[in-house]
Design brief:
Radius of gyration: 32 Å
Helix content: under 10%
Structural class: mainly beta
Distance between the termini: 68 Å
Largest sheet: 28 strands, antiparallel
Order of helices and strands: HEEEEEEEEEEEEEEEEEEEEEEEEEEEE
Number of strands: 28
Strand content: over 45%
Number of helices: 1
Protein backbone atom coordinates (compact mmCIF):
# COMPACT_ATOMS: atom_id res chain seq x y z
CA UNK A 1 0.00 0.00 0.00
CA UNK A 2 1.35 3.42 -0.91
CA UNK A 3 1.81 5.65 2.13
CA UNK A 4 0.38 9.16 2.05
CA UNK A 5 2.55 11.97 0.74
CA UNK A 6 2.66 13.96 3.94
CA UNK A 7 3.26 10.97 6.20
CA UNK A 8 6.31 10.02 4.10
CA UNK A 9 7.61 13.54 4.61
CA UNK A 10 7.59 13.04 8.37
CA UNK A 11 10.29 10.35 8.11
CA UNK A 12 12.12 11.81 5.14
CA UNK A 13 15.35 13.02 6.73
CA UNK A 14 16.04 9.88 8.74
CA UNK A 15 16.27 7.36 5.93
CA UNK A 16 20.03 7.41 5.48
CA UNK A 17 21.48 6.33 8.88
CA UNK A 18 22.57 2.70 8.92
CA UNK A 19 20.70 0.00 10.75
CA UNK A 20 21.87 -1.38 14.08
CA UNK A 21 25.46 -2.55 13.79
CA UNK A 22 26.90 -5.83 15.00
CA UNK A 23 27.48 -6.14 18.76
CA UNK A 24 31.19 -5.31 18.74
CA UNK A 25 33.87 -3.01 20.03
CA UNK A 26 35.80 -0.64 17.80
CA UNK A 27 37.11 -1.85 14.46
CA UNK A 28 40.22 -4.03 14.54
CA UNK A 29 41.71 -3.16 11.16
CA UNK A 30 43.37 -5.70 8.90
CA UNK A 31 45.14 -4.62 5.70
CA UNK A 32 44.62 -7.35 3.11
CA UNK A 33 46.40 -5.77 0.15
CA UNK A 34 48.56 -2.74 -0.58
CA UNK A 35 52.07 -2.00 -1.87
CA UNK A 36 53.94 -0.35 0.96
CA UNK A 37 55.60 2.74 -0.33
CA UNK A 38 57.26 4.09 2.78
CA UNK A 39 57.67 3.20 6.46
CA UNK A 40 58.79 5.75 9.06
CA UNK A 41 59.58 4.79 12.65
CA UNK A 42 59.64 8.05 14.56
CA UNK A 43 60.35 6.50 17.93
CA UNK A 44 58.29 6.56 21.10
CA UNK A 45 55.88 4.13 19.46
CA UNK A 46 55.09 6.52 16.63
CA UNK A 47 54.90 4.95 13.19
CA UNK A 48 53.90 6.48 9.86
CA UNK A 49 53.21 4.08 7.05
CA UNK A 50 52.16 4.71 3.47
CA UNK A 51 50.65 2.35 0.91
CA UNK A 52 49.58 2.67 -2.71
CA UNK A 53 48.73 0.65 -5.76
CA UNK A 54 45.23 -0.22 -4.61
CA UNK A 55 44.42 -0.58 -0.92
CA UNK A 56 41.93 -3.08 0.53
CA UNK A 57 41.25 -3.30 4.29
CA UNK A 58 38.59 -4.79 6.54
CA UNK A 59 37.43 -4.88 10.14
CA UNK A 60 38.09 -8.34 11.58
CA UNK A 61 34.88 -10.22 12.37
CA UNK A 62 32.63 -7.70 10.59
CA UNK A 63 31.12 -7.22 7.15
CA UNK A 64 33.02 -3.93 6.93
CA UNK A 65 35.51 -3.13 4.16
CA UNK A 66 37.51 -0.04 3.11
CA UNK A 67 39.13 0.45 -0.29
CA UNK A 68 41.04 3.29 -2.02
CA UNK A 69 43.93 4.07 -4.35
CA UNK A 70 46.33 4.82 -1.47
CA UNK A 71 46.46 5.04 2.33
CA UNK A 72 48.51 6.74 5.05
CA UNK A 73 48.60 5.42 8.64
CA UNK A 74 49.55 7.63 11.63
CA UNK A 75 49.87 5.50 14.75
CA UNK A 76 49.97 8.32 17.32
CA UNK A 77 46.74 9.72 15.88
CA UNK A 78 45.10 6.31 15.43
CA UNK A 79 44.15 7.56 11.96
CA UNK A 80 44.10 6.30 8.38
CA UNK A 81 43.89 8.72 5.46
CA UNK A 82 42.50 7.25 2.25
CA UNK A 83 43.20 9.05 -1.03
CA UNK A 84 41.55 8.47 -4.40
CA UNK A 85 38.39 6.48 -5.15
CA UNK A 86 37.46 5.68 -1.54
CA UNK A 87 34.81 2.98 -0.99
CA UNK A 88 33.37 1.93 2.39
CA UNK A 89 30.92 -0.95 2.83
CA UNK A 90 29.23 -2.48 5.85
CA UNK A 91 26.10 -4.59 6.36
CA UNK A 92 23.63 -1.72 5.90
CA UNK A 93 25.21 1.05 3.86
CA UNK A 94 27.78 1.97 1.23
CA UNK A 95 29.85 5.16 1.05
CA UNK A 96 31.91 6.48 -1.86
CA UNK A 97 34.05 9.64 -1.95
CA UNK A 98 37.22 11.14 -3.42
CA UNK A 99 39.06 10.86 -0.10
CA UNK A 100 38.36 9.89 3.50
CA UNK A 101 39.77 9.74 7.00
CA UNK A 102 39.01 6.91 9.42
CA UNK A 103 39.79 6.92 13.15
CA UNK A 104 39.08 3.36 14.36
CA UNK A 105 39.30 4.12 18.08
CA UNK A 106 36.63 6.79 17.80
CA UNK A 107 34.74 4.98 15.02
CA UNK A 108 34.73 8.27 13.11
CA UNK A 109 34.69 8.26 9.33
CA UNK A 110 35.09 11.56 7.47
CA UNK A 111 34.66 11.84 3.70
CA UNK A 112 35.14 14.65 1.17
CA UNK A 113 34.51 15.17 -2.51
CA UNK A 114 31.63 13.62 -4.48
CA UNK A 115 30.29 11.92 -1.35
CA UNK A 116 27.56 9.34 -1.97
CA UNK A 117 25.95 7.39 0.90
CA UNK A 118 23.38 4.66 0.10
CA UNK A 119 21.04 2.87 2.47
CA UNK A 120 21.07 -0.71 1.18
CA UNK A 121 17.63 -1.55 2.59
CA UNK A 122 15.57 1.37 1.29
CA UNK A 123 17.71 2.65 -1.57
CA UNK A 124 17.76 6.16 -0.08
CA UNK A 125 20.79 8.22 -1.09
CA UNK A 126 22.70 11.17 0.41
CA UNK A 127 25.04 13.11 -1.88
CA UNK A 128 27.13 16.16 -1.06
CA UNK A 129 30.62 17.60 -0.67
CA UNK A 130 31.36 16.07 2.76
CA UNK A 131 30.10 14.11 5.73
CA UNK A 132 31.25 12.90 9.15
CA UNK A 133 29.89 9.53 10.20
CA UNK A 134 30.15 8.14 13.75
CA UNK A 135 29.52 4.42 14.07
CA UNK A 136 27.94 3.02 17.23
CA UNK A 137 30.25 1.84 20.06
CA UNK A 138 28.63 -0.43 22.68
CA UNK A 139 28.68 1.21 26.09
CA UNK A 140 29.82 4.54 24.65
CA UNK A 141 27.75 5.59 21.65
CA UNK A 142 24.43 3.77 21.47
CA UNK A 143 23.45 4.78 17.92
CA UNK A 144 25.08 6.04 14.75
CA UNK A 145 25.36 9.77 14.07
CA UNK A 146 25.99 11.55 10.78
CA UNK A 147 26.78 15.18 9.99
CA UNK A 148 26.84 16.67 6.49
CA UNK A 149 27.28 20.27 5.36
CA UNK A 150 27.64 22.15 2.08
CA UNK A 151 23.94 21.69 1.26
CA UNK A 152 23.74 17.92 0.79
CA UNK A 153 20.86 16.30 -1.10
CA UNK A 154 18.89 13.42 0.40
CA UNK A 155 16.88 11.27 -2.02
CA UNK A 156 14.53 9.54 0.39
CA UNK A 157 12.64 6.35 -0.38
CA UNK A 158 10.46 4.55 2.14
CA UNK A 159 11.73 1.15 3.29
CA UNK A 160 8.19 -0.19 2.70
CA UNK A 161 8.19 1.05 -0.90
CA UNK A 162 11.76 1.37 -2.24
CA UNK A 163 10.54 1.70 -5.83
CA UNK A 164 8.48 4.81 -5.06
CA UNK A 165 9.31 8.30 -6.27
CA UNK A 166 11.85 9.79 -3.83
CA UNK A 167 11.50 12.95 -1.78
CA UNK A 168 14.31 15.42 -2.53
CA UNK A 169 15.54 17.02 0.71
CA UNK A 170 18.08 19.82 0.89
CA UNK A 171 19.51 21.83 3.75
CA UNK A 172 22.75 23.71 4.36
CA UNK A 173 23.46 21.26 7.20
CA UNK A 174 22.04 17.84 8.12
CA UNK A 175 22.46 15.89 11.37
CA UNK A 176 21.08 12.35 11.61
CA UNK A 177 21.02 10.36 14.84
CA UNK A 178 20.14 6.69 14.87
CA UNK A 179 17.11 5.68 12.86
CA UNK A 180 14.55 8.04 14.38
CA UNK A 181 16.04 11.51 14.93
CA UNK A 182 17.09 14.11 12.39
CA UNK A 183 17.81 17.81 12.14
CA UNK A 184 18.35 19.95 9.04
CA UNK A 185 19.21 23.63 9.01
CA UNK A 186 19.58 26.44 6.51
CA UNK A 187 16.88 26.95 3.86
CA UNK A 188 15.50 23.42 4.17
CA UNK A 189 13.36 22.23 1.25
CA UNK A 190 11.49 18.95 0.77
CA UNK A 191 10.05 18.33 -2.70
CA UNK A 192 8.23 15.69 -4.67
CA UNK A 193 5.74 15.79 -7.55
CA UNK A 194 2.81 15.65 -5.11
CA UNK A 195 4.20 17.57 -2.13
CA UNK A 196 6.51 20.43 -1.08
CA UNK A 197 7.65 21.86 2.25
CA UNK A 198 10.23 24.36 3.41
CA UNK A 199 11.56 26.13 6.49
CA UNK A 200 14.69 27.64 7.98
CA UNK A 201 15.21 24.34 9.81
CA UNK A 202 13.51 21.01 10.48
CA UNK A 203 13.46 18.63 13.46
CA UNK A 204 12.11 15.08 13.19
CA UNK A 205 11.61 12.35 15.78
CA UNK A 206 9.72 9.43 14.32
CA UNK A 207 10.12 7.35 17.47
CA UNK A 208 7.93 9.92 19.20
CA UNK A 209 5.86 10.45 16.04
CA UNK A 210 6.46 14.18 15.89
CA UNK A 211 8.42 16.88 14.12
CA UNK A 212 8.77 20.59 13.43
CA UNK A 213 9.51 22.97 10.57
CA UNK A 214 10.86 26.19 12.06
CA UNK A 215 11.20 29.68 10.61
CA UNK A 216 9.27 30.79 7.49
CA UNK A 217 7.72 27.32 7.51
CA UNK A 218 5.37 26.09 4.79
CA UNK A 219 3.85 22.76 3.84
CA UNK A 220 1.69 22.15 0.79
CA UNK A 221 0.14 19.36 -1.24
CA UNK A 222 0.46 19.62 -5.01
CA UNK A 223 -3.23 18.75 -5.50
CA UNK A 224 -5.10 21.82 -6.80
CA UNK A 225 -7.83 21.09 -4.25
CA UNK A 226 -5.30 20.47 -1.49
CA UNK A 227 -3.94 22.78 1.17
CA UNK A 228 -1.06 25.11 1.97
CA UNK A 229 -0.27 25.92 5.59
CA UNK A 230 2.27 28.52 6.71
CA UNK A 231 3.63 29.92 9.96
CA UNK A 232 6.79 30.77 11.80
CA UNK A 233 6.70 27.19 13.07
CA UNK A 234 4.82 24.09 11.89
CA UNK A 235 4.40 21.09 14.19
CA UNK A 236 3.07 17.70 13.15
CA UNK A 237 2.26 14.27 14.60
CA UNK A 238 1.98 10.76 13.23
CA UNK A 239 -0.37 7.97 14.27
CA UNK A 240 0.41 4.49 12.93
CA UNK A 241 2.90 6.07 10.50
CA UNK A 242 0.22 8.33 8.99
CA UNK A 243 -0.08 12.09 9.41
CA UNK A 244 -2.85 12.78 11.93
CA UNK A 245 -2.26 16.37 13.07
CA UNK A 246 -0.50 19.51 11.81
CA UNK A 247 -0.37 22.94 13.41
CA UNK A 248 0.94 26.31 12.20
CA UNK A 249 2.12 28.44 15.12
CA UNK A 250 2.62 32.23 15.09
CA UNK A 251 1.29 34.17 12.11
CA UNK A 252 -0.58 31.12 10.85
CA UNK A 253 -2.01 31.20 7.32
CA UNK A 254 -3.68 28.44 5.37
CA UNK A 255 -5.57 27.94 2.13
CA UNK A 256 -7.69 24.95 1.24
CA UNK A 257 -9.79 24.87 -1.90
CA UNK A 258 -11.86 28.07 -1.93
CA UNK A 259 -11.05 29.08 1.67
CA UNK A 260 -8.29 31.18 3.21
CA UNK A 261 -7.63 31.09 6.97
CA UNK A 262 -5.63 33.45 9.22
CA UNK A 263 -4.85 33.25 12.95
CA UNK A 264 -2.06 33.06 15.50
CA UNK A 265 -2.51 29.28 15.52
CA UNK A 266 -4.11 27.04 12.87
CA UNK A 267 -4.58 23.34 13.58
CA UNK A 268 -5.62 20.59 11.16
CA UNK A 269 -6.73 17.07 12.06
CA UNK A 270 -5.89 14.89 9.06
CA UNK A 271 -6.87 11.42 7.87
CA UNK A 272 -6.16 9.79 4.51
CA UNK A 273 -3.97 12.81 3.69
CA UNK A 274 -6.93 15.24 3.67
CA UNK A 275 -8.25 17.64 6.30
CA UNK A 276 -11.15 16.45 8.48
CA UNK A 277 -11.45 19.29 11.02
CA UNK A 278 -9.63 22.57 11.68
CA UNK A 279 -9.33 25.02 14.57
CA UNK A 280 -8.10 28.62 14.51
CA UNK A 281 -7.37 30.90 17.48
CA UNK A 282 -5.01 33.56 18.81
CA UNK A 283 -4.51 36.52 21.10
CA UNK A 284 -2.75 38.93 18.74
CA UNK A 285 -4.59 38.08 15.51
CA UNK A 286 -8.33 37.44 15.36
CA UNK A 287 -9.25 34.13 13.79
CA UNK A 288 -10.51 34.76 10.27
CA UNK A 289 -11.75 32.52 7.44
CA UNK A 290 -12.91 33.75 4.05
CA UNK A 291 -13.90 32.61 0.58
CA UNK A 292 -14.92 34.65 -2.45
CA UNK A 293 -18.46 35.15 -1.08
CA UNK A 294 -18.33 34.32 2.63
CA UNK A 295 -16.20 35.18 5.64
CA UNK A 296 -16.22 34.71 9.41
CA UNK A 297 -14.20 36.37 12.16
CA UNK A 298 -14.16 35.49 15.87
CA UNK A 299 -11.93 34.93 18.88
CA UNK A 300 -11.70 31.32 17.68
CA UNK A 301 -13.05 29.21 14.81
CA UNK A 302 -13.88 25.54 14.46
CA UNK A 303 -14.26 24.06 10.98
CA UNK A 304 -15.85 20.70 10.18
CA UNK A 305 -14.64 19.61 6.76
CA UNK A 306 -14.88 15.81 6.38
CA UNK A 307 -12.69 14.61 3.50
CA UNK A 308 -11.90 18.29 2.90
CA UNK A 309 -15.52 19.22 2.04
CA UNK A 310 -16.73 22.11 4.18
CA UNK A 311 -19.81 21.21 6.20
CA UNK A 312 -19.87 23.60 9.17
CA UNK A 313 -18.01 26.72 10.29
CA UNK A 314 -18.42 27.96 13.89
CA UNK A 315 -17.16 31.21 15.38
CA UNK A 316 -16.85 31.64 19.17
CA UNK A 317 -16.42 34.96 20.99
CA UNK A 318 -17.75 38.17 19.37
CA UNK A 319 -18.23 36.35 16.09
CA UNK A 320 -19.23 38.00 12.80
CA UNK A 321 -20.06 36.35 9.48
CA UNK A 322 -20.54 38.06 6.13
CA UNK A 323 -22.07 36.92 2.85
CA UNK A 324 -21.64 38.94 -0.33
CA UNK A 325 -24.22 37.95 -2.94
CA UNK A 326 -24.37 41.27 -4.81
CA UNK A 327 -21.17 43.00 -5.94
CA UNK A 328 -23.05 46.31 -6.39
CA UNK A 329 -23.87 46.88 -2.70
CA UNK A 330 -21.34 48.66 -0.48
CA UNK A 331 -21.85 46.48 2.59
CA UNK A 332 -22.38 42.69 2.48
CA UNK A 333 -25.06 40.87 4.44
CA UNK A 334 -23.76 40.08 7.91
CA UNK A 335 -24.69 38.35 11.13
CA UNK A 336 -23.02 38.69 14.53
CA UNK A 337 -23.34 37.22 18.01
CA UNK A 338 -21.51 35.52 20.84
CA UNK A 339 -21.51 32.42 18.62
CA UNK A 340 -22.14 32.20 14.89
CA UNK A 341 -22.79 28.95 13.00
CA UNK A 342 -22.62 28.59 9.21
CA UNK A 343 -23.69 25.33 7.56
CA UNK A 344 -22.85 24.37 3.99
CA UNK A 345 -23.98 21.73 1.54
CA UNK A 346 -22.29 20.35 -1.55
CA UNK A 347 -24.19 20.47 -4.85
CA UNK A 348 -24.12 17.74 -7.47
CA UNK A 349 -21.41 19.68 -9.31
CA UNK A 350 -19.22 19.76 -6.18
CA UNK A 351 -19.89 23.41 -5.37
CA UNK A 352 -20.20 24.31 -1.68
CA UNK A 353 -23.19 26.57 -0.90
CA UNK A 354 -24.40 28.20 2.29
CA UNK A 355 -27.69 26.71 3.55
CA UNK A 356 -27.95 28.13 7.11
CA UNK A 357 -26.48 31.00 9.10
CA UNK A 358 -27.27 31.36 12.80
CA UNK A 359 -26.20 33.80 15.53
CA UNK A 360 -26.62 32.92 19.22
CA UNK A 361 -26.37 35.36 22.11
CA UNK A 362 -26.70 39.13 21.52
CA UNK A 363 -27.51 38.28 17.93
CA UNK A 364 -27.63 40.91 15.17
CA UNK A 365 -28.32 40.60 11.46
CA UNK A 366 -28.07 43.01 8.53
CA UNK A 367 -29.29 41.92 5.09
CA UNK A 368 -30.81 43.15 1.84
CA UNK A 369 -34.26 42.20 0.56
CA UNK A 370 -34.93 42.40 -3.17
CA UNK A 371 -38.37 42.94 -4.64
CA UNK A 372 -37.74 40.74 -7.71
CA UNK A 373 -35.56 37.70 -8.37
CA UNK A 374 -33.57 39.49 -11.07
CA UNK A 375 -32.42 42.15 -8.56
CA UNK A 376 -33.09 44.90 -11.08
CA UNK A 377 -34.35 47.41 -8.57
CA UNK A 378 -32.73 48.73 -5.41
CA UNK A 379 -33.09 46.46 -2.35
CA UNK A 380 -34.72 47.15 0.99
CA UNK A 381 -32.50 46.98 4.09
CA UNK A 382 -33.31 45.01 7.23
CA UNK A 383 -31.49 45.20 10.57
CA UNK A 384 -32.63 42.84 13.33
CA UNK A 385 -31.64 41.99 16.91
CA UNK A 386 -32.51 39.11 19.19
CA UNK A 387 -31.08 36.39 21.38
CA UNK A 388 -31.07 34.04 18.42
CA UNK A 389 -31.36 34.74 14.69
CA UNK A 390 -31.51 32.00 12.06
CA UNK A 391 -31.29 32.63 8.31
CA UNK A 392 -32.03 29.84 5.84
CA UNK A 393 -30.95 29.86 2.20
CA UNK A 394 -32.33 28.14 -0.88
CA UNK A 395 -30.69 28.09 -4.29
CA UNK A 396 -28.03 30.44 -2.89
CA UNK A 397 -30.67 33.07 -2.02
CA UNK A 398 -31.99 34.13 1.38
CA UNK A 399 -35.23 32.20 1.93
CA UNK A 400 -36.31 32.86 5.54
CA UNK A 401 -35.15 34.63 8.71
CA UNK A 402 -36.36 33.68 12.22
CA UNK A 403 -35.73 35.90 15.25
CA UNK A 404 -36.13 34.40 18.74
CA UNK A 405 -36.44 36.27 22.08
CA UNK A 406 -36.44 40.05 22.44
CA UNK A 407 -36.51 40.59 18.71
CA UNK A 408 -36.53 44.10 17.29
CA UNK A 409 -35.08 45.93 14.34
CA UNK A 410 -35.46 48.37 11.49
CA UNK A 411 -36.76 47.81 7.96
CA UNK A 412 -35.99 50.48 5.34
CA UNK A 413 -37.65 50.64 1.92
CA UNK A 414 -35.59 52.03 -0.95
CA UNK A 415 -36.44 55.53 -2.07
CA UNK A 416 -39.10 55.56 -4.79
CA UNK A 417 -40.38 52.01 -4.28
CA UNK A 418 -44.18 51.87 -4.54
CA UNK A 419 -46.09 50.50 -1.60
CA UNK A 420 -48.64 47.78 -2.40
Amino acid sequence: MRRSAFSLLMTALIAVPVAAQEDRGTCEMQLDSARIGRHLDLGMGRVHQFGAGGVFARCIGEATTLQSDSVAWYSELDRLDFLGSFHFRDSAMSLDADRARYTPGLERLEAWGNVRLVNKKSGSVLTGPNLTYYRAIPGERAVTELYASGRPLVEYRAVEDPESEPYLIRGDRVHLRGESQAWAGGAVTIDRSDFAAKGDSAILNTAAGEGFLIGHAEAASADSAGYVIEGRRIAFRLTDDELSWVQAQEDGRATSGEWRIVGDTIEFNVANDVIQTASVWGSTTRAHAESEKHSMEADSLWIDTPDQKLRELLGFGTARATSRTDSLVTEPDWMAGDTVVARFDTTGTGKQVLVLLEARGHAQAFYYIYQDVDRLGPPAINYSRGERITARFKDEELDRVDIIDAGDGVYLEPSGRRQP
